[in-house]
Design brief:
Helices cover 29% and strands 27% of the residues. With 313 residues, the protein is of the alpha/beta class. The chain has two domains: 161 residues, 3-Layer(aba) Sandwich (Rossmann fold); 139 residues, Rossmann fold.
Length: 313
Amino acid sequence: MTATAPQPKIFACQQSKPLAEKIAKAFGQPLGNVITSTYSDGEFQPSFEESVRGSRVFIIGSTMPSSDNMMEMLLMLDAAKRASARHITAVIPYFGWARQDRKDKPRVPIAAKLMASLLETAGATRIITMDLHADQIQGFFEKPVDHLFASTIFLPYLKGLGLENLTIASPDMGGSKRAYAYSKAMESDVVICYKQRAKANVISHMELIGSVAGQHVVLVDDMVDTAGTLTKAADLMMEKGALSVRAICTHAILSGNAYDKIENSQLAELIVTDSIPRDHKSDKVKVLTCAPLFADVMHRVNSNTSIASKFIM
């Protein structure tokens, strides 16, 4: 007689526990029990307080800096591997360190590749993530990667606004593919911002390719960090005659004085997901949860059914 496979188990890294609780609720079962012990020097040790032998394990945690967040994910993957889990899926709503996806000057690391190698070495047999900074990061892994698109979350909200004379915009050349995908779904025009950076997070020059006069503009990007690009682009578009400017950004890093920039800009609204835990300090920030998306995909992975519909932007 063939033994029945155990039910999947869901665990959370500490920094992503609020989102993980939403995902587990949408999935239909509670989070597993994890206790984290911390030494006086800051070293920590997660411990699964229930058996995972032979189980499919989902470990949920975004890996944004500080490096403790990635380290916690690695330790939990290693613990699950050593506890004889059958399958170990790292559910990483925001894959941190992804902006270092290539050598853009001599003698620098490719951190995204290093993170991929570490996750696999620690024990991940599958990765589920959302809106990677660069699509090619999937190729850094030898294990299967389910790269989900937050457009399945944003498009219904955007259509619900009922905006006429809509134009989709990319804040830089690198995001043009994403902007064109949204414009196809919304049957709208596209404009692109061309920017030059003096250094990381500092824009020296920006120009607009296309017309926004008399249009409601929606900027689309994968992440918002200091909000310098978005706010500068919004101000430029309003100067060029736009009726309003909104921004859709999957991952709300919002570091430094980002909230001040948003409040003082001509952005009408910044729409983000809860992939990164944040206590938002601006009424302009609208948060849409990604929990149902991840819960649905986890169900499909567990039942070995197709998730192709979640790859359509």
